[in-house]
Design brief:
Length: about 250
């Protein structure tokens, strides 16, 4: 068996690019790295080979993978249904593949197309489209056995036993999430929240990357499943590129 220093990786978007958390498993602290771009090449022994990220067994990423040409992703609806009503807005809806053609700067055009398709595009959703496009360009359907989409709020909801959590933007919300991570065996080292300048990476970005690494461990161990809606059979479907539209938890 090939030795891997880090078995799982979690990735979350941040202002400066991507924050990645490498994790060996229960009892160890995650190691954070800032990436300016998303590339599987980095995890195959390129830029991060020196710290043992080559060939990570499982990668979980907090970004939509796969986009419908029209309408909504069933996995997003399932993720919302898994959360308490007051927390459901934390899952974006109404992201569609044709919106990508309006990047990098034509928000009015993207919103107008979206309204014609049935539902407008929020500014918040528009701001994550460049990262969606970056991941979309890097992944093929064959990559999805190793790279899975997760939603941190859904994972934290399961870790909490279904309790409603305060916003991750508050100190109370971050504290609760850190306690949940620690109870699951993942405890960031002292000074974790000062690892990067706040202008580049926010504390909640690091927490989300860490819980993605935890979710990746659950996926690798066969303890996670793709979210489904009652009344809908099978998985959430595939988009026009053949990418599976699934959120795992």
């Amino acid at each position: 068996m090939v030795h891997r220093e880090f078995l799982t990786l979690g990735l979350d978007g941040c202002r400066a690019g991507w924050i990645a958390a490498g994790w060996r498993g229960a009892g160890s602290a995650p190691v954070f790295r800032l990436l300016r771009r998303f590339s599987l090449v980095d995890f195959e022994g390129g830029e991060f080979k020196a710290v043992g990220w080559a060939g990570a067994e499982q990668i979980a990423i907090d970004i939509p993978i796969g986009l419908p040409d029209s309408g909504r992703r069933a996995c997003d609806l399932a993720a919302r249904a898994a959360l308490p009503p007051s927390a459901r807005s934390r899952v974006f809806l109404d992201l569609r593949r044709p919106q990508l053609r309006y990047l990098p700067s034509d928000y009015p055009g993207a919103n107008a197309w979206s309204k014609a398709d049935g539902k407008g595009l929020s500014k918040q959703a528009w701001f994550i489209l460049p990262k969606i496009a970056e991941v979309d360009a890097a992944l093929t359907p064959n990559d999805q056995t190793r790279v899975r989409e997760v939603h941190p709020e859904v994972v934290f909801h399961r870790l909490s036993g279904g309790a409603l959590l305060p916003s991750k933007k508050t100190s109370q919300g971050r504290g609760v999430r850190l306690e949940l991570l620690a109870a699951a065996g993942l405890r960031p080292q002292e000074g974790w929240d000062r690892r990067f300048p706040r202008k580049d990476v926010q504390p909640d970005d690091l927490i989300d990357a860490a819980v993605c690494a935890l979710a990746a461990r659950r996926i690798a161990d066969g303890k996670a499943t793709a979210l489904r809606l009652e009344g809908l059979s099978g998985v959430s479907g595939r988009d026009s590129r053949g990418l599976a539209m699934e959120i795992w938890a």
